[in-house]
Design goal:
This protein is mostly helical. Helices cover 74% and strands 0% of the residues.
């Protein structure tokens, strides 16, 4: 995959112009299979135009049957759009030269999609051993390390990157930074990324990696700023759009977040996650009917990819319940229950739906069943307490959160403190509000941001909540 720099290069732009001129005139464009693949990548990655990208790559395959680059691109589209490794392999196996690196990488990528990192690692090691040029070996190492990083196999990435001879190479530092961040070493990873950005401020992947790290350490405003740099380079950068949308969502800026999720969907119309996240955002804006529409779209996409189905069914259950469609909501709880072994959680969800519609006895029965099945798990007690809180029973919710927090190891347990703070705030107990607010922000800023953001100015990060509350007698 090329960087955004490549797509602003005069040579590439000249090839792109030739292609588009020929297309307008309806005549074949005589360019190489690699040029066709680069143009397809441009439409796909830079413009978010999947339909046009596929049209270009199909032309390349027709003109150059057996060429590695177009077939590898087509195979990756199968992985991306349908997560179909069988279709991807069928396209890839049409490659004539099976020593082409694009063949190597794509075959390994198929293994990673199939959750076979050991097989991919062994296959790539065999490919590496066939190389006889030091420069080739170095390039291969960087490419493979990045591939493992992209699929979050950081141990394998770390082993490969240490094969590199030039530890000053930006590619080496980029992979090292991503590995450090994945291990929670944010400060060290970000320091490395900032040095890379100083050397090349026009490299969007560096800005995206920085935004991801900042998001993971709950520095949401910093993450937004980094994403904006990336979007200034390419307004259709899908990773930057998603990073910014997620950070805005965490800050409680739901309407603004929805706009960026919508932009992401335009670029990645094949990704059910975009529709799912937009729907969750719309629910927070109380735009329930719109949320249902996007969840239905997510469900259709997930039927092909088989990704995120549990989450989609669960959100559909919540949404349909809010719309008064109780029977259909319960059907989706059962669908979610069939996806993953989380029966006790789904029993709580059934209790939540019953409680939302005033069926107290049925709700209690479901809650008791979930507690019995989970052997009084504190996680299930938490979910029940949250349901009771969400349904407006503050006194009972507060009692349940108190019981929970009195019976867990407070050194390791970090959930529920934000809800205790909210209950105290709603009931006018300022002393307990500040006590639990401080604990919530320190123990679980992500939960604090989600639960308590409405009490604070939009865009304020959780780290600022306690001081703000004290200074403003909040």
């Amino acid at each position: 995959m090329h960087s955004d720099d490549y797509f602003t290069d005069k040579e590439f732009l000249a090839v792109l112009k030739d292609y588009e001129d020929c297309r307008r005139r309806g005549v074949p464009c005589i360019i190489s299979s690699d040029d066709y693949t680069d143009i397809a990548e441009y439409y796909h990655i830079h413009d978010g135009d999947i339909r046009h990208a596929e049209e270009v790559i199909d032309t390349a395959i027709e003109l150059y049957p057996g060429a590695a680059a177009p077939l590898a691109f087509k195979a990756r589209l199968c992985l991306l759009r349908e997560e179909s490794t069988e279709k991807a392999m069928n396209w890839l196996e049409q490659t004539e030269d099976k020593t082409d690196w694009e063949y190597y990488y794509t075959r390994a990528e198929i293994m990673l999609v199939e959750n076979q990192p050991e097989q991919a690692d062994e296959y790539l090691r065999q490919c590496f051993e066939s190389l006889d040029d030091e420069d080739d070996e170095e390039d291969f190492v960087f490419d493979v390390a990045n591939l493992f990083c992209d699929y979050n196999y950081m141990e394998e990435a770390a082993k490969w990157i240490e094969k590199a001879n030039d530890k000053s190479d930006p590619d080496y530092k980029d992979v090292k930074a991503r590995i450090l961040i994945s291990h929670g070493k944010y400060e060290e990873g970000e320091r490395m990324l900032n040095k890379l950005i100083d050397g090349n401020p026009f490299a969007a992947p560096y800005w995206n990696s920085l935004a991801t790290s900042q998001f993971q350490r709950n520095a949401f405003n910093e993450s937004i700023s980094s994403s904006e740099y990336s979007l200034a380079l390419n307004p259709n950068d899908d990773e930057a759009l998603l990073n910014k949308a997620n950070a805005l969502y965490q800050l409680g800026s739901y309407e603004e977040a929805a706009k960026y999720y919508e932009r992401y969907i335009k670029v990645r119309s094949d990704d059910e996650a975009g529709e799912l996240f937009l729907a969750i955002c719309l629910l927070c804006c109380n735009r329930i009917t719109e949320a249902e529409t996007h969840l239905r779209k997510a469900e259709k996409l997930a039927d092909k990819t088989k990704r995120n189905q549990f989450e989609i069914y669960q959100e559909l259950a919540f949404t349909l319940s809010r719309l008064g469609k109780v029977d259909e909501a319960l059907d989706y709880v059962d669908k979610a229950d069939n996806q993953e072994d989380r029966h006790d959680e789904m029993t709580v969800l059934k209790g939540h739906i019953m409680l939302e519609h005033g069926h107290m006895e049925e709700a209690q029965a479901f809650f008791e069943e979930a507690m019995a099945e989970s052997q009084s798990s504190p996680h299930i007690l938490l979910k029940i307490a949250v349901s009771i809180y969400d349904n407006g029973f503050l006194i009972l919710a507060q009692k349940m959160f108190k019981v929970l927090l009195e019976n867990v190891d407070t050194k390791t347990w970090n959930e529920g403190y934000s809800y205790m703070a909210a209950c105290a705030k709603e009931r006018g107990n300022n002393e307990e509000w500040l006590k639990y607010l401080k604990m919530a922000v320190e123990k679980n800023p992500m939960e604090a941001q989600s639960v308590l953001c409405d009490y604070f100015p939009e865009g304020m990060e959780a780290a600022e909540y306690y001081d703000y509350a004290c200074e403003n007698m909040l």
